[in-house]
Design goal:
Length: about 140
């Protein structure tokens, strides 16, 4: 059993849902000889999240942003945590709804994603900045 852990810093992206599968795969060059394993990707932030979903049609990412903005609106008068602006607390709620990590099987040296699956960075802040991921994989 081998374990690989890599810190990946993603460039700043605008608010929205962004495919980052290639960024993850770039951090996993050491698994090319593995037959089987598991990969966990963890984001070290409370106002952005990770999820797996449709990787082909970009309108899916637009629809995700539309849904979450309606479900968790900004300028909600009952929010107390707004130190960093009107997108502050909504970003934390959206992040909690989606989650801070994804787990993907490894098969024959690659992430075993489905045909239409990709890994998204869910950026919930207007100016979130760069984001740090810890990618941990174990396998043989």
């Amino acid at each position: 059993m081998e374990i690989v852990q890599q810190l990946v810093t993603l460039r700043a992206r605008p608010r929205g849902f962004h495919l980052i599968t290639a960024d993850i795969e770039d951090g996993l060059s050491a698994i090319g000889h593995w037959r089987a394993g598991i990969c966990q990707v963890f984001i070290q932030h409370t106002s952005a999240a990770l999820t797996l979903n449709e990787n082909a049609d970009p309108t899916v990412r637009i629809d995700f942003e539309t849904y979450f903005n309606k479900a968790v609106p900004e300028n909600e008068p009952d929010y107390r945590h707004d130190y960093e602006g009107p997108d502050d607390m909504p970003a934390h709620i959206k992040s909690s709804l989606l989650g801070a990590s994804v787990t993907i099987p490894i098969r024959n040296g690659r992430l075993a994603l489905g045909t239409w699956q990709g890994i998204y960075l869910c950026e919930h802040r207007n100016r979130g900045g760069s984001r740090r991921l810890i990618i941990t994989a174990w396998g043989n």
